[in-house]
Design goal:
The protein is an all-alpha fold. It has nine helices and no strands. The protein starts with a helix and ends with a helix.
Length: 175
């Protein structure tokens, strides 16, 4: 059975913004994200039976997007790092009052994460996905995804805690 235009519009309205944010984080720029978003929705139209039969349509579409990103990066023969916004991450791992000061450090902290962990953080924060959905996208068990996410956030918190401790010692004039 063919889906109606309103069903495609509803799908786009439900996940388009989150999907675009994830794609922009993965690709590092909005134009490439828009191109991939368009390609994903074209693929949805072409493979609609598979899409609409999926247990979790949102996760299925995110997996399609992930695959399309990987195809794009492969065609370019270079891999870009996921480009999460430092302010977004800083706000997730430290108090809001410290978030602005921490944003400069967040970029460095993110570089310390493994690429797979960074992708999980991007899907969770930008895709606003559940752990089960992220697991379906990356092809890992939900418990592993949740553990990797928690550990990545904890590593970021530890990084900011150490920086805060160093700053406090400097203010007190001790080492």
């Amino acid at each position: 059975m063919r889906q109606t235009p309103s069903e495609f519009a509803e799908l786009y309205d439900r996940i388009g913004g989150r999907l675009f944010a994830y794609l922009a984080a993965r690709l590092g720029n909005r134009q490439d994200a828009a191109d991939v978003l368009q390609e994903v929705f074209l693929r949805i139209v072409r493979a609609e039976r598979k899409v609409w039969k999926a247990d979790d349509v949102d996760a299925y579409v995110f997996r399609m997007a992930r695959n399309e990103v990987n195809r794009m990066l492969s065609r370019r023969k270079r891999q870009r790092q996921i480009q999460l916004e430092p302010n977004e991450i800083a706000g997730q791992v430290v108090s809001s009052s410290a978030a602005l000061e921490a944003s400069d450090l967040a970029k460095f902290a993110l570089e310390q994460l493994e690429p797979d962990d960074l992708e999980i953080v991007a899907l969770k924060l930008y895709g606003q996905m559940t752990f089960a959905q992220v697991a379906e996208v990356v092809g890992s068990p939900a418990s592993s995804v949740a553990t990797k996410y928690q550990r990545a956030i904890e590593r970021l918190r530890d990084f900011f805690d150490r920086r805060t401790e160093i700053e406090e010692r400097k203010e007190r004039g001790t080492k």
